[in-house]
Amino acid sequence: MEGITSYAALGDNVERINHSGTMNTYRVMCEDGQGIMTMYELYPGMTLSFNDFVGMTSTKSMFRLKDNAEMLCLNYCREGRIEWDVAKDESLFLGAGDIGIDDHTMHSSDFSFPLKYYRGVTASFEIDAAQKCINKGVLSGFAVNLKNIQSAFCNSSHHKVVKQGVSALDHVFSEIYTAPDSQRETYLRIKLLELLFLLDSLSSSSDAGEDLYLRRSQIEKVHAIQEAITCDLSSAKTLKQLSDEFDFPYVSMQACFKQVYGMSIHSYLVHYRISQASRMLRESDVPIGEIALSVGYVNASKFSSAFKEATGFTPSEFRASASSEI
Q1: Do residues 229 and 245 touch, judged by C-beta distance below 8 A?
Q2: 156 band by pLDDT with thresholds 50, 70 and 90
Q3: Given this model, what pLDDT does residue 42 score?
Q4: Tens digits of per-residue pLDDT, 165-198?
Q5: Which of 275, 282, 267, 285 has the alpha carbon at shortest distance from 319?
């Protein structure tokens, strides 16, 4: 069976490192690490790719279609977040449970990972080969028109995003992600066809996705705010002060920050403080009171309450547990 490389070039920064039957594993070289893509060629022109990018901030895609090939792609974010430069001055963001639907024409671009990790699944369909396979009767009674689906979701310069919980698509992707080892490929084939069936139904509904983009100027301000609130954890600037300092309208600032990082400014700062404190508790003998002050809490009591609410452990319990695992 011909795979995705018969109709697309993956790019010079992608290297195949393993091959077994219909499965191919690729290493993607990034600026500050490497990602892994595990692809299953399930039917002619139909591929599922499990994507794992952890501990890195960005990568560049050199993907391009060959010989006028046309594609339909579903990009499901399982964990983390991904920022996708889709135009000169615009980016798309996917968070956990979101599904981006596109025709792969804008996959030669920069990708960033605001939370420094992204795990997800991509279902890819090369229109011509996949439609021929469907027309030959891949499953009795199963009939969808891929061109019609592509037209419904990819009829503008913008990708469509189906948000978490809007359709049954995210449930099927979740099942794909946790596919059993026993008869794994058979299970994935069934789920791939289920995705197409649901997508066909969704294409004619009012839930056929949204255009969700941020301008580069908005993204740059969000990144500047993130740097400002994390470089000095003792700072207690209010949202109003941040809005004034960065000339960013109050409501827009909060909405844009959440779109980039997947949480409010307050929630992000709490998460960051607890993350930094957890690292210090694991890796040092610094007294808990000093750690509390260093991550922006006025005293150990408030820090302990916040830490337990976030982790389920007091700082002392967390440190003891971490020490016992060494």
Answers
A1: no
A2: low
A3: 94
A4: 656 888 899 899 888 888 899 999 999 999 998 8
A5: 282
Separation CA 73–CA 276 (nearest Å): 37
State CA 44 to chain mean position distance: 26
pLDDT band of 311, cuts 50, 70, 90: very high
Distance CA 187, CA 193 (A): 10
- Does the global pTM surpass 0.90? no
Torsion of CA 129, 131, 136, 139, to 10 degrees: 120
- pLDDT band of residue 325 (cuts 50, 70, 90) is low
Query: d(Cα 299, Cα 133) in Å, to the nearest integer?
Result: 65
Among 288, 289, 278, CA closest to 321: 278
Q: Which long-range contacts (CB under 8 A, 24 or more apart) does 246-251 make?
A: 246/221, 247/221, 248/221
pLDDT tens string 93-119: 888 888 888 887 666 578 889 888 999
C-alpha to C-alpha distance for 146 and 188, rounded to whole angstroms: 19
Q: What are phi and psi of 84, to 5 degrees?
A: -130, 115
